[in-house]
Design a protein that fits this description.
By secondary structure, the protein is α+β, with helices and mostly antiparallel strands. Helix content is 39%, strand content 26%. The protein is built from seven helices and nine strands, in the order αββββββααβββαααα. It has a seven-stranded antiparallel sheet. Strands 7-8 form a two-stranded antiparallel sheet. Strand 4 and strand 5 (126-135) form a beta hairpin. Helix 2 (160-174) runs antiparallel to helix 4. The chain starts with a helix and ends in an 11-residue tail after the last helix.
């Protein structure tokens, strides 16, 4: 492995993820400003992100990087976190066998951006997106984005929001056809975000990919386009829906459906497991959980 080249790749990836974080934060704050005066909850204070830096040590006690947690509660977003982190060190012995390349050398580097948004309006789907670059004795990109409508009649593949989101993710893949096979990544997402104990999907899917370790420039360009596709499509979906009134029954349905999010993230999500097992910031890792949820 060319050490100088890998170090340059790390810097480029980190800079991109932090820049993408800043652009998403700005876009979401713009949505807070844009809520019309006649829309539900428009009389509430406009939300702004609060940024909190954190650091970590690895399992040996050595410094291991950290990140910045950006959280917002407002009149559009009930709870949203947009986080960028860069961590490094050594994997604990019991974890090395689970990570490609770590069994040969436990040292690692990981940088990325992640977000999950839960909105007040039940007509606006919740969303998750993350992209990351990981280096052990191997190096690869991973990530994706998926959409979770909270109302049953919107959880259909022919729903306009679903079609628009899938089209955006397909376009990001199709622009990099030699690197990113859309059908494979869509199926991977459907399989990954599946609640085995309920025999149902968490939402309507999107794309998911991992261990993408072909040419750096090609896989990095694709990963950038995933972030840009998300940055374009999701604010459009929020604007399309955030003025719609809702009923108490729809709010109840939203809160019950959020329980599926909690179940998946605590039982199956690899990012949650990776963060907790590598000494990540617990508040940042668990910020994915919705602020109010019900199990009837």
């Amino acid at each position: 492995m060319d050490t100088d080249k890998i170090e340059a790749h790390k810097k480029r990836a980190r800079a991109w993820f932090e820049a993408l974080r800043d652009r998403i934060v700005a876009a979401f704050e713009t949505l807070e400003d844009a809520l019309p005066a006649t829309a539900p909850l428009a009389d509430r204070p406009v939300g702004r992100f609060v940024h909190t830096a954190w650091g970590r040590t690895d399992h040996t006690g050595a410094p291991g990087g950290g990140g910045v947690m950006a959280m917002m509660k407002g009149r559009v977003f009930e709870k949203v976190g947009v986080h960028a982190s860069t961590v490094f060190g050594e994997f604990a012995p019991e974890f090395r066998k689970d990570i490609p390349g770590a069994a040969d050398d436990p040292r690692f580097f990981a940088t990325g951006v992640s977000l999950i948004a839960h909105l007040h309006n039940p007509h606006v789907p919740a969303v998750h997106m993350n992209t990351r670059y990981v280096v052990t004795t191997k190096s690869w990109f991973g990530g994706g984005a998926d959409l979770t409508p909270l109302l049953e009649h919107r959880r259909r593949q022919d729903d306009p929001d679903t079609r628009a989101f899938h089209a955006a993710m397909r376009a990001a893949c199709d622009a990099h056809a030699g690197v990113a096979p859309y059908d494979k990544f869509k199926t991977w997402c459907d399989d990954y975000f599946f609640l085995k104990h309920r025999n149902e999907m968490r939402g309507i899917g999107g794309i998911f990919y991992d261990y993408l370790e072909t040419d750096f420039d090609a896989t990095f360009a694709f990963t950038q386009d995933v972030g840009l596709a998300f940055l374009k499509i999701y604010p459009e979906l929020v604007r399309k829906n955030f003025t719609k009134p809702w009923t108490e029954a729809e709010r109840e349905e939203q809160l019950v459906r959020r329980g599926r999010y909690v179940e998946f993230n605590l039982l199956y999500d690899r990012g949650t497991i990776f963060g907790l097992r590598t000494g990540g910031n617990v508040d940042s890792i668990l910020s994915s959980l919705p602020p109010v949820v019900k199990w009837p």
